Amino acid sequence: MTGVLLFGVDRFRTINDALGHATGDRLLIAIARRLEASVRVVDRVARRGVDEFAVLLENVDACAAERIAARLTRVLGKPFRIDGSDLVVTMSVGIAVATDDPLRDAGIALTRAKALGRARTVAFDPSMRARATRAMTLEQELRAAVDRDSFSLMYQPIVDARSMRIRTFEALLRWGRLMPADFIPLAEETGLIIPIGEWVISRACEWIAELRDPSIKVSVNVTTLQLSDARFPRRVERALKAAGVDPTSLCLEMTESHLLAERETALAVIRDLRDLGVDVDIDDFGMGYSSFDHLCHVGATGLKLDKAFLAARPNHRRRAIVEAMVRVGHLLDMTVTAEGVETADDLDVATSAGCDAVQGFYISHPLSADEALQWSGGLSARRLLTASAG
Question: What is the pTM of this model?
Answer without folding.
Answer: 0.74
